[in-house]
Structures are given as C-alpha cells and as structure tokens.
Amino acid sequence: MEAFAKLSGEIQELVAEFSSAPVVGDLTVGLTQYSFWLLVAAAVLCIAMVVFVKKQSLVPHGFFVNGVEYLVEYVENDVAKGVVGTEWRRHFPFLATIFFFILINNFIGLIPGMKPGTGAIGCTAALALVTFVYFIYFGCKKHGFIGYWKSLAPAGVAFPMNVFVWVIEVFSLLLRPITLAIRLFCNMFAGHIVMGSFSIMAALFAEPLLEHFSAVNALGALPSIAWLAILLVIYAVELIVAFVQAYVFTVLAAVYIQIAEAEGH
Q: Which residues have CB under 8 Å from 196's CB, separation 6+?
C-alpha cells in the first residue's frame, strides 16, 4: 500500500509538471514553460532553414541537407500536390511551415528536461485557429464571401432540407479548429505522461538499490530493467507519433483548403 501511495503521488506530481507554469510574469501576462519552448522551436526552425538554404546545391550532400530536402519534397508531393491539387504552389509555403513547426516542437518535447510547445492546448488552438482563418480566407477569395457561405448548402437539395444541411455544415466547419487543436494536444500530452509514468516505475524499483547495495535490493531492482526496456520502446514510438501528428495536422489543413476552394463546394 505504501508503494502504491508513493506511485500515486509521483504520478500526480508528474501530471502537475505538465500544467502551464509562468517562467516570466504570470499566467495572465507572462511567459510559460510551453511558450518558452515554443519560441525555442521557432528559433531552431529559422536557423535550420537558413542553414539548409545556404548548404543547398544541385547535388545535396550531408545527412542534414538530404533529410530536410526529403521532408520538403514529401510535403510537396504527398500533401500539397496530392491533396490540394492544381493550386498547390500557392499553399505549399503555409503547409510546409505548419508541418516543420509542429514537427520541431514535437521533437524538442522528447528531449529530457524540455517541453513541447504542442503540449499546451493554447499552442495547438492557435495553430488550429490560424489554419481555420487561412482556409476560410481562401474559400471566400475563390467564391466570394457570400458565395462561400452559401456553397455550404449542397446544390440540388430542396427547401427546407437545404437550410438544415447548411446548419449542419456550418457546425461541422466550426468544429474543425477544435478537433485539430484537441487531437494534436492530446496525443502529445498523453505520450509524455506515459513515458513519465514508466520512468517513475523504473526509478521506484531501482531506488532501494541506489540507497543501499545488497543482493535483496539488486533482485528487487530487476523489474526496473523491464520498465526501462518498455520505456525505450515507447520513446521510439513517440518519435514516430511526433512525425505522424505533424503529418496528420498538415494533411487535414490541406484537405480543408482543397474543400474550401473546390468548384463544387
């Protein structure tokens, strides 16, 4: 029971660590740890892009240049061209920026002692809101303000059913930024809580051995090896999740842009 109570307390402390805490100022006007690492990620992205542009050549050399070029081409071909279609060039800079910004934030959060900017709902909500405004703007630009909102009701549907469908479509449209924000936040937050939990389990079993070396304590610390092995597997999975979440957010943004600009919309 004592061990369970200790584990429960450690888990509560772990969850509390992921709550937004002010680094400068307060929560009303200030800089939280998530905002700080968000700015770090933005700086890393800018530096990486400057270095990439300077090192670019007809024949790319080096792991960094080849890796970034592969990701750029992946976003261009698989997301921009593959989803948006003929108008992909106009939207590629936005989609690439969103993808790399989320990806770097996610990866920075996997470094011990750091926090992902995407681990705070405020950050993911801001990203979702920017995406929402972006595709609404281009939808209105393509069809006109009135034309875009009228187009939410499908052609050929008689009154009053077309009004009912229009209301559903508007509601669905307003839900898009919410689902974008929550999906990214929950995946990043939950992943870090799981990794932290396994770290705590490994530490709890190893703690007696670290305090006093003995055969009994050494035997009792053996489960820590299993917890650490599982933690390494989860860490590898989180690396994949970090990429997948950046990809999913960007693809959904591209889908919403394509829908907003579609002639039949």
A: 14, 17
Nearest to 145 by CA among 136, 153, 134: 136
Q: Which of 134, 89, 116 has its CA nearest to residue 33?
A: 116
- C-beta atoms surrounding 16 within 10 Å: 9
Per-residue pLDDT tens digits for 117-172? 888 888 899 999 999 999 999 999 988 888 888 888 776 666 777 788 888 888 89
pTM above threshold 0.90: no
| In contact, 98 and 245? CB cutoff 8 Å | no
Q: Name every residue whose Cβ is closer than 8 Å to that of residue 231 and which is 6 or more positions away in sequence.
A: 195, 198, 199, 202
Domain edges within the chain: 2-261
Question: b or e along 83-108 (b: 16 or more beta carbons within 10 Å of the residue's beta carbon)?
Answer: bbeeebeebbebbbebbbbbbbbbbb
φ/ψ bin of 243: left (φ > 0), alpha (ψ from -120 to 50), beta (otherwise): alpha
Which residue do the tokens 């705070």 mark? 120
- For the chain, the distance separating the N- and C-terminal CA atoms, rounded to the nearest angstrom, is 61
For residue 31, which phi and psi values (nearest 5 degrees)?
A: -125, 115
Q: Which tokens hold the place of 3?
A: 């061990």
